[in-house]
Amino acid sequence: MVVSVETKIPDALLELIDDPAVTDICLSSGRTLVDSGSGLKTAEKLALTESELSMLAKDLIELGGRRLDQANPFADVSLPGGLRVHAVLKSACTDSTLLSIRLHSTNPMTLESLLNGGFATSAQSELIQEIAGSRQSFLISGATGTGKTTLLRAMLQEKDERVIAVEDVSELFGANIICLQTKPKNIEGQGEITLEDLVRQALRMRPDRICIGEVRGEELVPMLQALNTGHRGATTLHANSLEQVPERLLSIAAQQQINETTLSRLVASAFDWVIALSVEQGARRISGIGKFEVSNDKLLVVSQLRSRKLQLA
């Protein structure tokens, strides 16, 4: 971690950040919760006042090149040392400043070490390595904190591909990964750069693979169009299981006025694989691996390990 960042962080918080077991730190006025791999637990040694927390949140967001104030009470930034910081300033929507810090190792795990660490069964490991080595397109789903970004980063670095990564806050990094980050509007309401904008620019950068850190809105359409015109891709999606992936995609598509028939065919053609992650008894694991299929104009996921169809009602 660089000195300029250290000077903005209390010693007790620095100790948590430097702990290799810690993955998440959540702060509110008078309370700190820490996840060391077995869920969020109270950290008794760190309790900041509202004034201290507000100042810390503003300083960290400023270090990331963005602003946090009453006109813009929400912000996300990436900081040196593998920190992703999300802040909500005390305002009409919350009676306390809220600070969420996600910690990524500056020496990320290789795919082999990740899979051998209890993340997958032997059958799942074999299939994941095959997917990563095949240069096929894939989607990783899971709830918050299940390891989607960790697995995505490890898989992207298995091949010497030119990967253009598009994110709201940069979390993907590697020798073969070029990162593009969105930009919010300035104080005059100008200068916004969206994920959709960056996906279109990425197409002109001679990518071997286009990666969107997380799909959740308007960027879905240009991404699917790109993957249906010869580009390889990878992304993550918030969904709790293989069964919920079609429903989640349909809900996003509905916001973009895309009907189910069109979406189903675009998704099935764009992605070769779907990988679902979960947390079981505090441990992150692969819970399923499947492929998209279209049956009667409905999007299905066919499990490749259980050989049975999963369709939402």
Provide structural commentary.
The chain is of the alpha/beta class and 313 residues long. It folds into two domains: 3-103, 2-Layer Sandwich (Beta-Lactamase), CATH 3.30.450; 111-310, P-loop containing nucleotide triphosphate hydrolases (Rossmann fold, 3-Layer(aba) Sandwich). Helices cover 30% and strands 27% of the residues. It contains ten helices and 15 strands. It has helices at residues 3-6, 11-18, 50-63, 111-119, 122-134, 148-156, 195-202, 220-227, 245-255, 260-270; strands at 24-28, 31-35, 40-42, 74-79, 83-88, 98-103, 138-142, 163-167, 177-181, 209-212, 232-238, 273-280, 283-295, 298-303, 309-310. It has a nine-stranded mixed beta sheet, sandwiched between helices. Strands 3-2-1-6-5-4 form a six-stranded antiparallel beta sheet, covered by helices on one side. A hairpin with a 4-residue loop joins β2 and β3 (40-42). α8 packs across α10. Mean pLDDT is 85; it is low at 307-313.
